[in-house]
Amino acid sequence: MSPSFNLVLPKDGKKLAHFFSGWEDMLIEACLEGAMGQIWTDDPVHPRAVRAISGDFCFLAGDPGSPAASALASSLPEIGKDFLLMIPCSPGWGPVIEAAWPGRYTKILRYAIHREPDAFDRQHLAVLAKRLPKGAALCPINHVLYERLLTEEWSRDFCSNFSSWESYRTFGLGFVALMEGKPVSGASSYVGCSTGIEIEVDTRPEYRRQGLAAACCARLILECLNRGKYPSWDAANLESVALAQKLGYHLAHEYLTYELNLSTVSSNQVRPPRSAGT
Asked: In the beta sheet, which residues pair with residue 253?
């Protein structure tokens, strides 16, 4: 019989924060707070290994030699998607992941961005937020836009990790650029909690390279700062890093991520990151 593990109640999540020391990630923070996502551990009284899942991301931390480590890496809840990004937050988890998912993972690099509340130049952000092409207008994500964004593939992740509009209104925040009333670019909360949000940004392919993403992000960052929330950023690729730096963020380091193929078998290889945004 495989070793069992336990779902952690939201009220107990913060007791496991030390497992993720050094990871300035709002997805983890939202899990620990109990706002979004879920956490599991091998032992509720004397935990050695921990798993946190939020959206498309799974974080493994603690002792990879724990009897339940393999089960934490392999026995996943139903997430309704054909891939998952699994991140080893402590040394030694890589071999555990590879043994759990033979032939079904791809190694990619992602880029951690420093968490620096005082790094932003508000005047610079205000200029970027106003630098829009003719005919474009920025609009906060309201209930109508929330429902509309969920219906389109390019914009679904702006809102899809929230269970309802009420949840988004409580923990989320976002802005979209409209052209002739149609959303064509946006920056929103991939997840959110009491202390901040994790920014998700994307633009329709035919509207890219016009400054729309930068404008949406700048407006969102300013609104977060006004509300006392931190606008966290984690980059999927170097293009995302460049946009982050334009907005005032600073690169911390790259880190290894396993992209799991949950539907079909794929070969093991290191390849460029997915083209998706933050």
From this structure: 112
